[in-house]
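Take a sample.
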Amino acid sequence: MITLLASLALLAEPVQWETRPIVERHDYPPIAKDLRVNGTVTLECVNNDDGALTRCGAVFARPADMGFQQAALAIVFRGRVARPAGVPFMVELPFDILTEGDEPLRQPWEGPEPGPEHIQAAQAFTDSFYGASRSAAERSIRDWKVNEMPPEKAALLRAWMAELYPDLEAEKALYAAGVARVLARHGLDYLPTQKPIGWDVWYAQVIQASPEDPALIRNEMRRRYCEAFDCASGAAAD
């Protein structure tokens, strides 16, 4: 690993990219994507004669504990540089494509309200769909890698999730209510055994039709997280 002074000197020289590694929305760590937090990662890399990166290590990430380091190490190898082989150099990789701040709330439901036949079909589908699924809080703990965070931070996130997220039965009831509304909108009293054409549109409609807007929870989690920890994203230039 090169010295700090050498690192700073190398940072002063912009990297000449032949192929620049581009960060896309699906590259964001789940916690950063859910909380709408941008960031930046500094890496030290080495390339071969063809300009392909052969070795990189994350030196610094801001914000910390959000998985940006691991994400950056998967993205940076998409790049190719024009520079001497075998000479370490520094890269700042920006994660700067999310619109930070509160997630916009959805519009109120304006479709027809479901009848008993829609509710019954939606409940049967929801029971089958969820099966042995975990609750949203349990999924977030897994996806955000809370168990890998410092213990005090992990405990605080678990406490917030327990307070804000519905339990599994409540979550299933909200989902079933959304499904029932979508069935009423489409004039159906059943869901096809095969995924219907345009299933992604159906799924988006179910989320839109749910009686509780999940953006409310995500916005409150963002507010608490950014008050307690560092959510500042650094401007990156490479």
In short: Residues 4-95 form a domain with the TolA/TonB C-terminal domain fold (CATH 3.30.2420.10).
